[in-house]
Amino acid sequence: MVTVAFDKLFEKRIKKIRNRELKQRVKKQIEKIVTNPEIGKDMRYGRKGTRELRIPPFRLSYTYEKKKDRIIFLDFYHKDEQ
């Protein structure tokens, strides 16, 4: 079974979301990631080792440690803030 953890920055940004529809979309994507951790785009260069999933116009950043079978959600940000 996959272990799920949330970074403090991620929790802080999710709490700030006021739009119910967006919050629901984020929850659905988190569920998808938990069922299939390798669904997100593998990042390169300075962000190597992390994955991203699009929730237009936002991005959900996470890491998947295959050996430990653990997912850590790192950040939720607007594409233009990248």
Structure description:
The chain is an alpha+beta fold and 82 residues long. It has one domain: YaeB-like fold, CATH 3.30.2310. Helices cover 29% and strands 34% of the residues. It has a five-stranded mixed sheet with strand order 1-5-4-3-2. A hairpin with a 2-residue loop joins strand 3 and strand 4.
Structural class label: alpha+beta
- Ends apart, CA distance between termini: 32 Å
Helix content: 25-40%
Number of domains: 1
* Total helical elements: 2
CATH class: Alpha Beta
Q: Roughly how many Å is the radius of gyration?
A: 12 Å
Under the CATH scheme, which architecture would be assigned?
2-Layer Sandwich
List the strand order in the largest sheet. Answer: 1-5-4-3-2
Number of strands: 5
What does the overall shape look like?
Answer: globular
Largest sheet, strands/sense/barrel: 5 strands, mixed
The low-confidence parts are none
Mean pLDDT: 94
Which superfamily, in CATH terms, is the homologous superfamily?
Answer: RelE-like
Regarding quaternary structure, what we see is single chain
How do the SSEs run, as a string of H and E?
Answer: EHHEEEE
Which percent range describes the beta-strand content? 25-35%
